[in-house]
Amino acid sequence: MEHYTQEKELDNIDYTAVPWTKGVYETCTFNNCNFTEADMSRCRFIDCTFNGCNLSLAVIRDTAFLGVRFKDCKMLGIKFDTCNPFGLEVDFEGCQLKHASFYKTRLRKTRFKNVQLEEADFTESDLTQAVFEHCELHQAVFYQAILEQADLRTAQNYTIDPESNRVKKALFSLSGLPGLLAKYQIKIQP
Protein backbone atom coordinates (compact mmCIF):
# COMPACT_ATOMS: atom_id res chain seq x y z
CA MET A 1 0.00 0.00 0.00
CA GLU A 2 1.30 3.43 -0.98
CA HIS A 3 2.20 5.83 1.85
CA TYR A 4 -0.26 8.76 1.97
CA THR A 5 0.23 12.01 3.91
CA GLN A 6 -2.35 14.79 3.90
CA GLU A 7 -2.50 18.30 5.39
CA LYS A 8 0.71 17.94 7.36
CA GLU A 9 3.33 20.56 8.15
CA LEU A 10 6.86 19.16 8.17
CA ASP A 11 9.49 21.45 9.71
CA ASN A 12 13.30 21.37 9.74
CA ILE A 13 13.70 17.75 8.70
CA ASP A 14 17.08 16.74 7.28
CA TYR A 15 16.36 13.97 4.79
CA THR A 16 20.10 13.41 4.33
CA ALA A 17 20.06 11.98 7.88
CA VAL A 18 16.46 10.72 8.12
CA PRO A 19 15.12 8.39 5.40
CA TRP A 20 12.64 9.96 2.96
CA THR A 21 9.30 8.14 2.80
CA LYS A 22 8.06 7.80 -0.76
CA GLY A 23 4.37 8.17 -1.44
CA VAL A 24 1.62 10.73 -2.00
CA TYR A 25 1.72 14.09 -0.22
CA GLU A 26 -1.41 16.22 -0.50
CA THR A 27 -1.78 19.80 0.81
CA CYS A 28 1.42 19.41 2.86
CA THR A 29 3.87 22.17 3.72
CA PHE A 30 7.60 21.52 3.98
CA ASN A 31 9.46 24.25 5.92
CA ASN A 32 13.27 24.48 5.92
CA CYS A 33 13.74 20.80 5.06
CA ASN A 34 16.91 19.42 3.49
CA PHE A 35 16.30 17.12 0.52
CA THR A 36 19.84 17.39 -0.91
CA GLU A 37 20.39 14.39 -3.21
CA ALA A 38 17.27 12.70 -1.77
CA ASP A 39 15.62 10.10 -4.00
CA MET A 40 12.10 11.48 -4.38
CA SER A 41 11.37 9.37 -7.45
CA ARG A 42 7.80 8.27 -8.15
CA CYS A 43 6.30 10.47 -5.42
CA ARG A 44 3.21 12.62 -5.94
CA PHE A 45 2.93 16.12 -4.53
CA ILE A 46 -0.54 17.64 -4.82
CA ASP A 47 -1.14 21.26 -3.77
CA CYS A 48 1.99 21.25 -1.60
CA THR A 49 4.31 24.10 -0.62
CA PHE A 50 8.07 23.98 -0.09
CA ASN A 51 9.36 26.96 1.95
CA GLY A 52 13.08 27.55 2.37
CA CYS A 53 13.96 23.97 1.49
CA ASN A 54 17.13 22.66 -0.14
CA LEU A 55 16.28 20.29 -3.00
CA SER A 56 19.66 20.53 -4.74
CA LEU A 57 20.41 17.46 -6.85
CA ALA A 58 17.27 15.71 -5.57
CA VAL A 59 16.21 12.85 -7.84
CA ILE A 60 12.67 13.47 -9.11
CA ARG A 61 12.34 10.76 -11.76
CA ASP A 62 8.63 10.17 -12.51
CA THR A 63 7.65 12.47 -9.62
CA ALA A 64 4.36 14.35 -10.05
CA PHE A 65 4.11 18.00 -9.07
CA LEU A 66 0.48 19.10 -9.26
CA GLY A 67 -0.16 22.63 -8.04
CA VAL A 68 3.15 22.81 -6.13
CA ARG A 69 4.71 26.07 -4.93
CA PHE A 70 8.42 26.50 -4.23
CA LYS A 71 9.31 29.60 -2.20
CA ASP A 72 12.86 30.62 -1.27
CA CYS A 73 14.18 27.16 -2.11
CA LYS A 74 17.65 26.12 -3.23
CA MET A 75 17.24 23.75 -6.18
CA LEU A 76 20.64 23.56 -7.85
CA GLY A 77 20.98 21.05 -10.69
CA ILE A 78 17.46 19.65 -10.32
CA LYS A 79 16.18 17.85 -13.44
CA PHE A 80 12.53 18.71 -14.02
CA ASP A 81 12.85 17.03 -17.42
CA THR A 82 12.76 13.65 -15.62
CA CYS A 83 9.62 14.28 -13.54
CA ASN A 84 6.15 13.09 -14.50
CA PRO A 85 4.93 15.51 -17.18
CA PHE A 86 1.24 14.72 -16.67
CA GLY A 87 -0.46 17.71 -15.06
CA LEU A 88 2.84 19.36 -14.14
CA GLU A 89 1.99 22.66 -12.45
CA VAL A 90 4.65 24.52 -10.45
CA ASP A 91 5.27 28.04 -9.20
CA PHE A 92 8.67 29.42 -8.17
CA GLU A 93 9.36 32.48 -6.03
CA GLY A 94 12.73 33.57 -4.66
CA CYS A 95 14.36 30.27 -5.63
CA GLN A 96 17.84 29.36 -6.84
CA LEU A 97 17.41 27.15 -9.89
CA LYS A 98 20.94 27.40 -11.24
CA HIS A 99 21.88 24.56 -13.62
CA ALA A 100 18.29 23.21 -13.54
CA SER A 101 17.09 21.25 -16.55
CA PHE A 102 13.68 21.88 -18.09
CA TYR A 103 14.53 20.10 -21.35
CA LYS A 104 11.31 19.40 -23.30
CA THR A 105 9.26 20.30 -20.21
CA ARG A 106 5.78 21.78 -20.56
CA LEU A 107 5.69 24.86 -18.34
CA ARG A 108 2.73 26.77 -19.74
CA LYS A 109 1.69 29.70 -17.52
CA THR A 110 4.43 28.92 -15.00
CA ARG A 111 5.44 31.86 -12.84
CA PHE A 112 9.09 32.46 -12.02
CA LYS A 113 9.37 35.42 -9.62
CA ASN A 114 12.75 36.65 -8.34
CA VAL A 115 14.35 33.38 -9.45
CA GLN A 116 18.01 32.77 -10.26
CA LEU A 117 18.02 30.65 -13.42
CA GLU A 118 21.68 30.94 -14.41
CA GLU A 119 22.68 28.22 -16.87
CA ALA A 120 19.23 26.61 -16.72
CA ASP A 121 18.30 24.55 -19.79
CA PHE A 122 15.00 25.41 -21.47
CA THR A 123 15.79 23.58 -24.73
CA GLU A 124 12.56 22.57 -26.51
CA SER A 125 10.45 23.51 -23.49
CA ASP A 126 6.96 24.99 -23.79
CA LEU A 127 6.93 28.28 -21.90
CA THR A 128 3.74 29.66 -23.44
CA GLN A 129 2.44 32.49 -21.23
CA ALA A 130 5.17 31.87 -18.64
CA VAL A 131 6.17 34.87 -16.54
CA PHE A 132 9.81 35.58 -15.71
CA GLU A 133 9.40 38.40 -13.18
CA HIS A 134 12.74 39.88 -12.03
CA CYS A 135 14.62 36.68 -12.95
CA GLU A 136 18.33 36.30 -13.61
CA LEU A 137 18.84 34.27 -16.81
CA HIS A 138 22.60 34.59 -17.38
CA GLN A 139 23.71 31.78 -19.73
CA ALA A 140 20.29 30.10 -19.60
CA VAL A 141 19.76 28.07 -22.77
CA PHE A 142 16.71 28.75 -24.94
CA TYR A 143 16.76 26.66 -28.10
CA GLN A 144 13.63 25.65 -30.03
CA ALA A 145 11.63 26.76 -27.00
CA ILE A 146 8.07 28.03 -27.23
CA LEU A 147 7.97 31.47 -25.60
CA GLU A 148 4.74 32.67 -27.18
CA GLN A 149 3.01 35.29 -25.00
CA ALA A 150 5.71 34.80 -22.33
CA ASP A 151 6.53 37.85 -20.22
CA LEU A 152 10.24 38.64 -19.91
CA ARG A 153 9.92 42.41 -19.43
CA THR A 154 11.73 42.43 -16.07
CA ALA A 155 14.01 39.44 -16.71
CA GLN A 156 17.74 40.13 -16.92
CA ASN A 157 20.75 38.88 -18.85
CA TYR A 158 18.99 36.49 -21.19
CA THR A 159 20.09 35.56 -24.67
CA ILE A 160 17.22 34.38 -26.86
CA ASP A 161 17.52 33.92 -30.61
CA PRO A 162 14.12 34.77 -32.17
CA GLU A 163 15.08 32.65 -35.19
CA SER A 164 15.63 29.52 -33.05
CA ASN A 165 12.68 29.98 -30.69
CA ARG A 166 8.99 30.78 -31.06
CA VAL A 167 8.49 34.24 -29.55
CA LYS A 168 5.23 35.42 -31.11
CA LYS A 169 3.51 37.98 -28.85
CA ALA A 170 6.14 37.55 -26.12
CA LEU A 171 6.78 40.64 -24.01
CA PHE A 172 10.29 42.08 -23.73
CA SER A 173 11.58 45.40 -22.43
CA LEU A 174 13.74 47.78 -24.38
CA SER A 175 16.63 46.96 -22.02
CA GLY A 176 16.33 43.29 -23.07
CA LEU A 177 16.92 44.10 -26.74
CA PRO A 178 20.65 43.19 -26.62
CA GLY A 179 19.71 39.66 -25.48
CA LEU A 180 17.52 39.24 -28.56
CA LEU A 181 20.14 40.51 -30.98
CA ALA A 182 23.27 38.97 -29.41
CA LYS A 183 24.02 36.63 -32.29
CA TYR A 184 24.34 39.61 -34.66
CA GLN A 185 27.03 41.24 -32.48
CA ILE A 186 25.23 44.55 -32.77
CA LYS A 187 26.31 47.22 -30.31
CA ILE A 188 23.35 49.04 -28.81
CA GLN A 189 24.01 52.29 -26.98
CA PRO A 190 21.62 54.54 -25.05
Radius of gyration: 17 Å
Mean pLDDT comes to 96
* Contiguous helical run count: 1
- Kindly report how far apart the N and C termini lie: 64 Å
Structural category is mainly beta
Main sheet summary: 10 strands, parallel
Proportion of strand residues: 15-25%
Structural features, described:
The chain has 190 residues and is mainly beta. It contains one helix and ten strands. Strands 1, 2, 3, 4, 5, 6, 7, 8, 9 and 10 form a ten-stranded parallel beta sheet that branches. The radius of gyration is 17 Å and the shape is elongated. The relative contact order is 0.09.
Q: Which SSEs are present, and which pair or pack?
A:
Elements (H helix, E strand, L loop, with lengths): L3 E3 L2 E3 L12 E3 L2 E3 L12 E3 L2 E3 L12 E8 L17 E5 L17 E3 L17 E3 L43 H5 L9
Parallel strand pairs: 1-3, 2-4, 3-5, 4-6, 5-7, 6-7, 7-8, 8-9, 9-10
Features:
190 residues; 10 strands; ten-stranded parallel β-sheet
Provide a compact summary of the structure:
By secondary structure, the chain is mainly beta. It is built from 1 helix and 10 strands, in the order ββββββββββα.
